[in-house]
Amino acid sequence: MPSLELIVEATAVMLILMLISIRAGFVDPGGLFSSFIIGYSIYVFGGRLFFVPLLVFYVVAGLMTKLRYEEKRLKGVAEEKLGARGWRNVLANGCVAATIVYISSCTHSIPRPEFLAAYLGAVSTAYADTLATEIGLLYPREPRLITSMKPVPTGTPGGVSPYGTAAQLLSAFTIVPATALFLPKGYDAATFLNLLAIVLLSSFLGSTFDSLIGATVQAVYRCERCGKVTEKRTHCNAEAKHLKGFRYVDNNVVNFVATIFGATIAYALVHFGLIPLEIV
Ligand SMILES: [Zn+2]
Questions:
Q1: What is the pLDDT of residues 13-46, one digit of tens each?
Q2: Which residues are placed with Cβ below 5 angstroms of ligand 1, an ion?
Q3: Which residues are CB-neighbours of 146 under 8 A, at least 6 positions away?
Q4: How far is the CA of 215 from the centre of ligand 1 (A)?
Q5: Which segments in the chain show pLDDT lower than 70?
Q6: Which of 151, 123, 143 is nearest to 60 (CA)?
Q7: What are 151's strand-pairing partners?
Q8: 211-233: per-residue pLDDT in tens?
Q9: If 0-12 CB within 10 Å is exposed, 13-18 middle and 19+ buried, where does residue 248 land?
Q10: What secondary structure letter does DSSP report for 85?
Q11: Of 214, 242, 249, 261, nearest to 96 (Cα)?
């Protein structure tokens, strides 16, 4: 059971964070509600150790979605509503992570390293994918499809670019130092490097897996008003034409599956002793 102090702390921090989110426009009303539920439950069941990496993801991804927003909007590839994320996006990126924390807290009073790894694998996959997308959209040339390596229009699911790949890798370097600060055993070099290796591998493989399913099974549309290729069902306030992929596999479904993949990789790395991790 979470302590009263932790509940009070989580309530206070989450209320402040939600006020900041409204002001910064990180989420729309539905996104605000679902990020409160996800963030609050992770804080209460996982404490600071689990909450802080989520906080890094939430704030940095929110800022990067806003980065040169006007330029992305002119390219026709910006997130709608000035980049405010909706509840589907929040749940797709956060519900696997929240489930892992819940299972971890129900089964172990002190978190097992495999569970921390799996949690970070899920969060960092969603984080790496979001940064790769938002920073990759600023790449001045056309991205290449991850499967064929042929140039495709910016915004095509499964499109990869040097900017996106750099962002995908760099995301680990923000989330790992923040997590290491809150490890029960403290901050030492070996643990830090092992944690970095786990997060780098799982987030890179998880977000690459995201691009692979994006390129193969995700629904792709073309806007009949502006001609842009998009992963959104509607564009320029009109129904877009379906080009390929399964209609019910949208970006949120792909993100959700990719976070499970990232979590599994990280869990396996620690469980099978490929990368040792001691946290207490
Ligand atoms: Zn359009």
A1: 999 999 999 999 999 999 999 999 999 999 999 9
A2: 223, 225-226, 235-236
A3: 158, 159, 160, 208, 211, 212, 214, 215
A4: 20
A5: none
A6: 123
A7: 144
A8: 999 999 999 999 999 988 889 89
A9: exposed
A10: B
A11: 261
